[in-house]
Structure formats: C-alpha cells, structure tokens
Design goal:
Elements: H1 2-8, H2 13-22, H3 27-38, H4 56-59, H5 63-71, H6 95-106, E1 133-136, E2 141-143, E3 152-156, E4 164-172, E5 179-187, E6 202-203, E7 217-222, E8 229-230, E9 236-240, E10 245-252, E11 259-261, E12 264-269, E13 276-281, E14 290-291, E15 298-306, E16 311-320, E17 324-332, E18 338-345, E19 354-362, E20 367-374, E21 390-391, E22 401-409, E23 419-421
Parallel strand pairs: 9-13
Antiparallel strand pairs: 1-12, 2-11, 3-6, 3-10, 4-8, 4-9, 4-12, 5-7, 5-10, 13-22, 14-21, 15-20, 15-23, 16-19, 16-22, 17-18, 17-20
Helix pairs in contact: 3-6, 5-6
The structure holds heme C (HEC).
Length: 446
C-alpha cells in the first residue's frame, strides 16, 4: 500500500527509480519465484489459463497485462474481503509481491541472470492424492468447437455395497483445457434428483430438483488450480451411504476445435472411525427472490436457522448467476449478537470456495443470513437482458442466490435437520428482494 502511494506521488518518483536501479528487479531472481508459487498451477500448457507463464519467453509479452491484472486484484482469482475472516486456502498475492512485479514491468521487464533463477517446478500430471476408489464417467462427453455449452449432468452408477466414510476427494478432468469447473454429487437412495436418468447420458436440465435436504452432497469439485479437497477437520469425514449413485455436474467451455472429456473422481477412505460428519448444504437460499429490471444494485436476503445441536461452519461457496455481484454470510446468534462471517465479490466465471482457517461454532437456533447484490443494469456486460425482471431458476438467464456451506456435526445427526428455512425465506414473493429491511435483525425469527 505504502509503496503504491509513493509511486503514484509524482514528486517521489525519482527516489523510487534510483532505488529500483541500484537493486534492479529481474525475472530470474525476483519474478519467477512469485509466478511459480502463485500462477503456474493454471498458467502452463494444457491448463485452463489462456497463456503459459513458465519461462521468460512466455511471460515477457504479458508484463503489462500482468501488472494490470495484479493491481486490479483480478489475478490470482480470489475475491474474499481481506478484512473479514481467515481462510486456509487464501490465494491472494502479498502486497510486496505485487509491487515486485509492478517494478519489474515498469523497468522494461529485464530477464536478469540465469544463475539467479530457481529450478523449474515439476508438475504432477497424476493424482494429488492416492485414491482408494475411483469413479469415472462411463463414456466420453463430446465438447463442441464453439458457442456456449450449458451445464451437463451425468448420472453414474455407484455399486456402493456399504456405508463409506471419505476423508479426501479429488476430481480430475479428462481434458483440463475444456473443463472450466465441475462437481461430483453423491445421490443417496431415496433422493429423487435425476432418478429417471439413464446412466452415462448427459442431460442439460429437467431431471427434477437437486436439494441437499434429500441428502445430495457435493463429494468432489474441480476448479482450475484447486487440487484435492480434505474433509478431515478435527477427525471429520464425508458419508457416502450404501447404495448411493453419483452425478457429475460439468461446465465446459469451447476451445475452437471439437474434442472430448471423460473426468473422474478419486476418493481416499477414512482410516479410522470419524469423529464427526462433514456435509455440504445449500445454505441460505433465496428461491423467492425478485430482481427488478434495470436495477444496478438489487439486494436479496435469505435465511436459515440451525437445527442441530453441535454444528460448526468450515467452508463457504456463494452461488449466483450472471448478474451476481457480491455475497455476505451473517450470523445472528441466539444471544442476539450479530457477526459477519464472510464477504466476497462474486464472479460467475470463478465458482470459488473459501475454507475457514478455524471452524466457527453455530449454536442451535443461530440464524444464518445470506445477503447478496445483483447488477441487472446495462452496465453489466454479462447481463443477458437488463429489461427483464428476474426470478429464481436454473438457467444462466435466471438467477440464484445461495451459499453452499460446509459444516461438521455429529455422525448420527440427520443432515435434513441441519437447517430449516426461516424469516424472510418463508415470505411470499414480492416485487423486489427480500431485503435487509424486511429482516428482524435482533428478535428471534419465530
Ligand atoms: C486458478 C487459476 C489461475 C491462477 C492461479 C492464475 N490465473 Fe491468471 N488467468 C487464469 C484464467 C482462466 C485466465 C483467463 C480468464 C480470465 O481472464 O479470467 C487468466 C487470465 C490472466 C491474465 C489476463 C490475460 C489477458 O487476456 O489479458 C493475466 C495477465 C494473468 N492471468 C496473470 C496471472 C498471474 C500473474 C497470476 C499469478 C500471480 C495468475 N494469473 C494466476 C487462471 C489463473
């Protein structure tokens, strides 16, 4: 912060230039180590980013673009408000590293001395974990060359003969160049979502409602650079009930030539009996939302109340569509105390998840509010149609507002009792909102 103010203050520019020329910032010595630890997981051949940043030759033409992307906090993708909460998977670049790269770009992006360069990183093309069990799409999905590809849902037979407790999962794309992000859901016996689907066939919609209240649970996710996910938080694990099937939810992007993908999920089974259960819930969900036409900052609030005695929040992943701007999770504890647990800008292209550094206890009766904002104006370049009033729905031109939340709770507790809808989420649809002014901020919801 201090350095950026110095640089923008004209009278001090000379001082900075002198300092910079006496200890020049070079690619080999200063920039490459930063790119290795923060960028190359995505910026290398075959990965999702549009260009490689492995070598000086790769990175040199992008020096100015890199400077801009870092100063705008566009890269690396990480949107949490730095003033709120601490996250185990924090990807934000340190201010000092940003300034190093800015200084390099401003001084002609010199290469430096090869002797100063760290050895190139070795990338594993295989698993980041050692799977006990692998679940694979039974056939290739044909990815077309151009145009938008809607979300695809593929049901896969489980053959799960007994309850399994899973401590780690990793979803691996068959073709990382086209899989933008994906999820693999556990669908337990008794769930109605996609119950009529033929195994292995890709569906776009119309296969019933996916509700975490029926026990559907996200088992593994792929986002570029995410790697393996652990469900082990003080001895917790994820349950795959006997008889479960799996649904691959895939978001592909076209790359200019037709190709295929066949992704898979690797699971590591818990070595000991789990101390608690890790479950991903849809969290506060605004299925009664209304976003007025043209509104550049439409507020929408949703609410659930904690129904289990011993639940702790470990993970948050907001979900909205193309008009989504930001999302906040706020707890109103039974004592009446209010606390913002998480706040982040939202970008539809990055369905990012945030792993809390420490589990946050949510006592029974805690009300969890989801507070989101949408840009339904002409200024939003992703807006499919600013003249439309928008409601809840599955397509990109509809909207959603919910926050997938990871919680740990007792192994014998029923996830269906984790949350119940309360407050504004029980209100009939209005003409906007529901908004914060409709929420009783201190009194109990019932
Ligand atoms: C999680 C994956 C990921 C990481 C980590 C990441 N990038 Fe990116 N980057 C992307 C993708 C995907 C795009 C293209 C889409 C976009 O712009 O959002 C991109 C775009 C960019 C662009 C813009 C290219 C243009 O067209 O102008 C720059 C510059 C950039 N990245 C630099 C960096 C730097 C520097 C780092 C590390 C400090 C970094 N990125 C880390 C995935 C990543």
């Amino acid at each position: 912060m201090k350095i950026s103010r110095l640089i923008s203050a004209g009278c001090l520019t000379a001082t900075v230039a002198v300092a910079a020329s006496s200890v020049p910032v070079t690619f080999d010595k200063d920039v490459l180590p930063i790119l290795q630890s923060n960028c190359q997981s995505c910026h290398r051949p075959g990965e999702v980013a549009p260009m490689s940043l492995l070598t000086y030759q790769d990175a040199r033409p992008w020096a100015k673009a890199i400077k801009t992307a870092l100063l705008n906090h566009q890269m690396p993708p990480w949107f949490a408000d730095p003033k709120i909460g601490h996250f185990a998977n924090d990807r934000a670049l340190k201010e000092a590293d940003i300034q190093t790269i800015v200084a390099w770009a401003d001084n002609g992006a010199p290469k430096g001395n090869p002797a100063d360069a760290p050895p190139p990183l070795k990338f594993e093309d295989g698993w980041n974990l050692q799977p006990d069990l692998v679940i694979e799409m039974p056939r290739d999905f044909a990815v077309k060359a151009t145009g938008t590809i809607n979300y695809q849902y593929i049901r896969v037979k489980g053959n799960i003969a007994r309850d399994l407790w899973v401590s780690e999962a990793e979803m691996r794309p068959g073709n990382p160049a086209v899989l933008h992000h994906g999820k693999v859901w556990v669908v337990p016996p008794g769930s109605h979502w996609m119950e009529d689907a033929e195994y292995g066939v890709a569906y776009e919609a119309g296969m019933g409602r996916n509700t975490t209240e029926e026990g559907n649970d996200i088992l593994g996710k792929f986002n570029p650079g995410l790697g393996a996910q652990t469900f082990e938080v003080n001895g917790s694990a994820k349950l795959v009930p006997k008889g479960s099937d799996f649904v691959f939810e895939m978001h592909y992007t076209a790359t200019g030539k037709p190709t295929t993908d066949r992704s898979k999920l690797g699971l590591v089974l818990a070595k000991t009996a789990p101390a608690s259960r890790y479950f991903l819930s849809a969290g506060p969900t605004a299925s009664n939302l209304v976003i007025p036409a043209g509104d550049g900052n439409a507020e929408v609030v949703s609410e659930v109340t904690v129904g289990l005695p011993d639940a702790k929040l470990v993970y948050a992943q907001p979900h909205m569509h193309l008009r989504g701007k930001d999302f906040e999770l706020r707890a109103i504890y039974p004592t009446g105390e209010t606390e913002t647990l998480f706040k982040a800008k939202f970008d539809f292209n990055w369905q990012l998840g945030y792993q809390f550094a420490k589990p946050i206890p949510l006592p029974q009766g805690t009300r969890l509010l989801g507070i989101s904002h949408f840009d339904n104006s002409v200024n939003n370049r992703f807006n499919p149609d600013p003249s439309q009033e928008v409601r809840w729905g599955p397509q990109n031109w509809d909207e959603m507002s919910n926050c997938f939340v990871g919680l740990v709770f007792g192994v014998d507790d029923d996830p269906a009792r984790l949350f119940y809808r309360s407050g504004v989420s029980l209100q009939p649809r209005g003409t906007a909102g529901p908004k914060l002014v409709d929420v009783q901020l201190t009194a109990a919801a019932h």
